[in-house]
Amino acid sequence: MFTVNNECDGQFVTSALAAGPRRRRFTCPQAQVEWRLSSHQPEPVMSLPTLRIIGFIIGIFLITLAVAMIVPMATLVIYDRFEDLREFLWASAITFIAGLALVVPGRPDNVQLRPRDMYMLTVSSWIVVCIFAALPFLLTQHISYTDSFFESMSGITATGSTVLSHLDSMSPGILIWRSMLHWLGGIGFIGMAVAILPLLRIGGMRLFQTESSDRSEKVMPRSHMVAKFIVLAYVGFTALGSLAFWAAGMSLFDAINHAMSAISTGGFSTSDLSLAKWPQPAVHWVAIVVMILGSLPFTLYVATLRGNRKALIKDEQVQGLIGLLLVTWLVMTVWYANTTDLPWTEALRHVALNVTSVVTTTGFALGDYSLWGNFSLMLFFYLGFIGGCSGSTAGGVKIFRFQVAYILLKTNLNQLIHPRAVMKQKYNGHRLDDEIVRSILTFSFFFTITICLIALMLSLLGLDWMTALTGAASTVSGVGPGLGEVIGPAGNFSTLPDAAKWILSGGMLLGRLEIITVLVLCVPAFWRH
């Protein structure tokens, strides 16, 4: 501990610091510097109060999950389908008791979580919630825990990959539970992307930290007000989407399920045919609109509600995503209409829904687009990496990272032409400093390496190259279906080996938590004092 009134000679400071660990007092008359050195015991990596508060928060999540299971139970009662009611009661009771056991010890006073603790909280909470969210699948579908956990992880991470089939005749309780996992995971990811990832400086997310800071344009005066308006927008879009799907021709039950799945960019459907079960064009266009709404920054919806009507229009992320969708729609429609006998309007509808679903990492499908031809096959594979905007429910690399990469490329090319010029790099009005650039490059590198390693491990298990590569890419990016006959839009992941399902479940978690959040726990230095 020290107080400084003026500069002091470096030699004196060195001698003072070298005086030993015992508590001493040093005074420098020339500079009026007072030093107090004391022995310092290193803090443990995870103290007991810290573990208690992490457990307390996870306990709250589990209790919330247990209460959420009331909705499937109520659905079973409404539809007179009581065969799964007891199983849901057991799942809810087990989850509630586990959450209560973590909450009862209480929350320690005067304990603040450090960034290191936030890594542990984020990863452990997602894993624990997925473990207990799998119980309804395990108890009602009589499937292995591997399949149950895979379905749960796919739901919570809003990936949309599934091991279940015969959805059209499945219990309404399980169907609504799958959609609810998407919905709860979607709002959870928005909160993490807005509040936690910028704090942890993951993958360039610090660009969006100012959206809730005092130095930014005042979107909201307090963070809890931001959360309130985000939840309001999320619930509002879900309600409007449900009404729109219902008006377009779906039953009310199907409409609610698909609205929750679309706004969370998840992709679970109530039919094995996905949206192809409903031939009404209005259903497809409603899905397109809701998917786009879910892939835009929810903080900008908050700004719009606060009176900034041009918040969405001026945002470079939004401009980039909408521009990408329109250009891809146009190119694919021209190609698809000329290679099939479909009218232009119908070709546009098929292209718009499937392209939007892949770009926003939702996972809905209107037919098996992997059979459209080699050009579409490659294009859909590339589009699955892009993702939506930061602060949305979409997965993938995120559009802003591609935009920043373009800015860096353009700046470097201009620097080669004009070596003495001073180039200012800005994105959305924020300066791109070295830390942000380094963070984005690190994320992009590990994102690519993760997909390559998972694909390699899947190939070691005997999967063909198409299934291995697109399975790895679709789960890490959060798209859901892969490409090909096995895991394509017309298939599912049920036939894969159990080891492959665990590997892909890990890929979903890595992709949803922006990879670095999980990998930092694997660094030995994290666990040292």
Q: How is this structure best described in words?
A:
The chain is mainly alpha-helical and 529 residues long. It has 3 domains: 2-37, no CATH class; 48-242, no CATH class; 243-529, no CATH class. It has 21 helices and 5 strands. The protein has helices at residues 10-17, 48-68, 70-78, 85-103, 115-133, 135-140, 145-156, 172-200, 223-248, 252-263, 281-294, 298-305, 311-314, 316-339, 344-359, 374-383, 399-417, 434-460, 465-477, 498-512, 516-519, and strands at 2-4, 24-28, 33-37, 426-427, 430-431. Strand 4 (426-427) and strand 5 (430-431) form a beta hairpin. The radius of gyration is 26 Å and the shape is globular. 46% of the residues are buried. It is found in: Cell inner membrane; Cell membrane. It comes from Pseudomonas amygdali pv. mori. Keywords: Cell inner membrane, Cell membrane, Ion transport, Membrane, Metal-binding, Potassium, Potassium transport, Transmembrane, Transmembrane helix, Transport.
Major beta sheet summary = 3 strands, antiparallel
Domains counted in the coordinates: how many? 3
**Mean of all residue-level pLDDT scores:** 86
- Strand element count: 5
The unreliable regions are: 1-40, 210-221
Spell out the helices and strands N to C. EHEEHHHHHHHHHHHHHHHHEEHHHH
Content-based structural category: mainly alpha
Strand content: under 5%
**Radius of gyration (Å):** 26 Å
Q: How many alpha or pi helices?
A: 21
Read across the widest sheet, the strand sequence of neighbours is 1-3-2
Oligomeric state as shown: single chain
Q: Helix share of residues?
A: 55-70%
The rough form would be described as globular
Protein name: Trk system potassium uptake protein
Family: Belongs to the TrkH potassium transport family.
GO molecular function, one term: metal ion binding
Pfam families: TrkH
